[in-house]
């Protein structure tokens, strides 16, 4: 209850503070460079000056916070990764040396690559198919809302839901896990799903696909609607069938949106952490980089140097994808 | 409208944040003379913390949290302080984040001395008073060993007492349902040979002997470390055990690998465990003992520490519905009857008058007796009334603890955090998943080597 009251208060103060800052700083600017009751020449000069300062005033807070919460941590992570356990004594590249000889790191790397290959591809694929199919039917909107809903669930929440789906009870007792209940119903033997190496990775990925398909669907559905009708009509007149229209007319025209969706999900997957922590905590060969980082950073007193080294690796892996993503998004905007 | 909501929110916040009242107390002061009420009244007279706040963080949720809060309520009633306890399933990581972020609680309850030692070496713990050290030496059974366990090196390299042990668990226990044993005509095994014989006998009779569960959120795997430690003490000398804990005896040494394989004898056999070997790592340790109580019984025995009755079904009468026997030692090996135990260590992570007072409160008989009278609590404190234990089962355990000769502390709790609360857990999960004991030992040793 107390938290609720505090968070309401903070929200209110935050909004009021923002309003006050922008109005107040603008008002100060006008006071400093008056434009009324001054000579024309001075007025023109003042308008120019104010226009030069205003963007910095308005962008200032955003730049400051980006610097504090984004730029500074990046440099601090690099600094920490070159230092020992407590971030005090300089050890050079020892943490990286250890990292590339560590079995767990290699395992995490392989798992992350698997996640990268499978999750964005399937999420985008399902999103695209569903977007195309639901556009044509009467109850399409209901179907879309249902598929979009998991987006609103936090990763931890989703993990808990799926933990129940995969839950395993000994053979002969009532299966509370949906998957095992189905398996038993069709005469199979229940399995401890999340402990089976390789397959457990896939089952964890299903959770993220379940969450992200809705996102892909919404973006791609909007893109599909933006396609000019004439192109489709022309294709129909030329005697193309449905499949051909979809692959040769529609897809090429929304290629940019597909790329943006794909890369956005890719960046998210590189940082995947909550699902693994909640489901397996990296056991049974499901370790991923972000969870390994958390483990080294905070478990058993923590090792800041090694934790930071893993963080730097994740960052380096994200950068190229991010650059491409931003470029694609910009190209999309210019195209409009 | 907005104002209305805000006002009612404020009103509610004021209502809900008020501290405990005397009517929250489980046992009314002065009523039952098993309790040492004099020590409570004395503390009430000596200490006044009206209006002061104290935050405590620990690993306990659910039943254990309620029990801890039932003791804390007496501190609140005696001193007028407002104590907030918060539990977390991932306490090991949470506390590290909290102290690094500068938002540490006043008092942290460490399930692992290894983790506390680590934080002390970084300067995040405040030393306890010299009186506390003297008190523990004089009043705890095997007092100096409890002092040693809570003494760490600080940032400057000085040794200090940082941790006070309150709430001790006995680990070498096997829980069973007397009625089920009677119906099947099974005798309580006195030796490890007999225990293994009984295990095979139960399978031959068409039953399942064991329930084993290692699941524990982000701490999955820890129950297996207790098994291995108990079996270390039953296959190797106590000196070897100590060398193993300090890594003078390597984790991939044949002696250690043998102990892991001993555990595998029980847990790695599909016929011996409820749900088969695969289920061991996925079943939650809190739900695992419930197999004893189902009808027909899913299993006959469950090796777990003394805290586990907190998770037995509601209304279970210990000694009648469920009981325990000592996890026996080999008759063929001359190792006596070793006892494995552990305890939670209370340390000060943000010093204040209230925090020091709370540690002093834990040195009153009443602070121990309140929890003794309920469940899941043992104490090596010689100054308590042993009749305060809630039942004969607990009393039996309390006696074992007070008379301990070869008493060894939980090894994984003494190892560096990254091993005892990391690689060892993961290794045991891998082992139950089918990796060989040697490979698991190699992996854990490799992690340990990488720490140095």
| CATH fold call of the largest domain in chain A | MetI-like fold
Number of domains of chain A: 2
Proportion of strand residues of chain B: 5-15%
CATH architecture of the largest domain in chain A: Orthogonal Bundle
Could you state the CATH homologous superfamily of the largest domain in chain B? Answer: Periplasmic binding protein-like II
Q: What is the CATH first-level class name of the largest domain in chain B?
A: Alpha Beta
Strand content of chain A: under 5%
Please tell me the CATH architecture of the largest domain in chain B by its name. Answer: 3-Layer(aba) Sandwich
DSSP helical segment count of chain B: 20
Shape designation of chain A = globular
Task: Please mark out the parts of chain B with pLDDT under 50 across 5 or more consecutive residues, or reply none.
Answer: 9-23
Rg over alpha carbons of chain A: 26 Å
Subcellular location (chain A): Cell membrane
Domain ABC transmembrane type-1 (chain A): 109-325
GO cellular component, one term (chain A): plasma membrane
InterPro entries (chain A): MetI-like, MetI-like_sf, UgpAE/MalFG_permease
Explain the overall architecture:
The complex is a heterodimer of chains A (336) and B (452). Chain A is an all-alpha fold and 336 residues long. Chain A folds into 2 domains: 1-82, no CATH class; 97-334, MetI-like (MetI-like fold, Orthogonal Bundle), CATH 1.10.3720. The radius of gyration of chain A is 26 Å and the shape is globular. Chain A is built from 14 helices and no strands. Chain A has helices at 2-32, 40-81, 94-100, 103-134, 140-148, 155-165, 178-185, 199-225, 229-237, 242-253, 255-270, 274-279, 289-298, 304-335. Chain B folds into 2 domains: 2-169 and 341-409, 3-Layer(aba) Sandwich (D-Maltodextrin-Binding Protein, domain 2); 173-338 and 411-450, 3-Layer(aba) Sandwich (D-Maltodextrin-Binding Protein, domain 2). In chain B, helix 2 (37-46) packs across helix 3 and helix 19 runs antiparallel to helix 20 (437-451). Mean pLDDT of chain B is 88; it is low at 9-23.
